[in-house]
Write the structure tokens for this entry.
Amino acid sequence: MIVAERKPIDEIKEMVKSFKRVLNVGCGGCTSICHSGGQKEVDLLNEELNKAFELDHIPLQIDSFTIERQCNADFYLLLDEKMQSYDAVLSMACGAGVQFLSDRIPEKPVFPALNTIFVGVDRDLGWFEENCRSCGECVLGKTGGICPVTRCAKSLFNGPCGGTAHEGKCEVSKDTPCAWYEIHKRLKQQNRLENILLITPAREWRNQTRGTLVQEAYKERYAK
Amino acid sequence: MKSGSRLERVLEAGHFAFTGELGPPQGANVEAIRKKASHLKGITDAVNITDNQTAVVRMASWAAALVAIQEGLEPNYQMVCRDRNRIAMQSDILGASAHGIRNMLCLSGDHQQFGNHPSTKGVFDIDSIQLIHMVKGMRDDKKFLNGDEIDGSPQIFIGAAANPFAEPFEWRVHRLAKKISAGADFIQTQCIYDMKLFREWMKQANDMGLTEKVHILAGVTPLKSGGMARYMATNVSGIIIPQEIIDRVANAPKGKAAEEGIKICVEQIEELKEIKGVHGIHLMAIEWEHRVPEIAERAKLIPRPQV
Ligand code: SF4
């Protein structure tokens, strides 16, 4: 899932304070699951904004509306029309959702209420961890299911570096496990250390220009 | 000869090599380099010119290496993967070779978080093993990383680092093997204080036949004080300093800690000379270049052989 966190309230205030009517749009997808941009968080943010603007004597009406996902046109049926009566839109989706929404209403300013931070997993309730950098060439099959691009601070492919500290911690922090220490441990456990004995050559980075993907079954449909 | 560097000639002739280290200044202060160089000239076979070590901005290592050449030193040009992508690396390697730089040490580099620009974007396009392999391909196959022909291949004696003291210990010798198969001609190790662990690692390297394929230079750093010893032992990842060594420096009479540190260093060098497969010493006397001649003399590393 995509994990995002809310921007500081002052930054959000700055973005919207000069408008009269603002619609805060939540997303029922990833940002709802990671407790940063669902209906509940939209309501909380609006409450906070209302209070703050009241204190500053700024007359601003802020309403809320949450759709199932901001990254797919199918969910915009009601929202498209609703947005028309506002001066600006605040989005509590990930960066992709914010852009998708902006493209649907190019004549009006759209502001992000969140900072999108990573693709990750739930460690525990309300606790998330980054596990994927979307690099476009997955090596997990070789590295025991532990990603060296994401979890090694230097994204090494032939690690570990010389800095692995006591008890297998990364040189950047005593709280971060060294990805390569973990990869070694897991492959040893599976008796597959030969996986990392050979040199992994320099990789072809595929995430340096904007990616698009058309699944095989749909290729014909979009052929020009 | 792969590069014809002095370091290569010394090692290939079977002599025991001696390399030092010179950290470029945090500025364009050429005099600072010349001053440090004056202590090392004629004493060492080659001098490592560090590349923005600990991720603190300094004069470019290739530039400081050129000053070192002017001063009569042979540089060992360090390059880290943190700050440049494969385009910049290959271009710098060609430039370095064109200007007479003949040794290079390929490193991952300290993470940017430790330096004075902690929020910079780390590059890490390729890693140190891929860098070694790339330099070898440029030199021997006369090809860029993408397979294109090179017009005039770089002549570089390829170095790599090895750390026997970082976890997972049992993997460290395999990582050495990987660096050798990537193309490393010589290895400089992390500073050694734990002789027992180092001997174990060397035994593994000997048993695997690795010492036949590569020249290993054992790394040493003299401890200046008890404080430095304790700091390094607790704060520098991948360094192990046994308590008895810390105690020896820390318990030295007032004003005598540095002397004790040098004494330990000389003893270590004597011991390392006797270990099978160790072909030289790499002395990292950080901001202590002026003490190098004394250490070299007491450890009988000078005079250097004529090659
Ligand atoms: S200590 Fe491990 S995780 Fe950290 S940079 Fe080095 S190899 Fe990567």
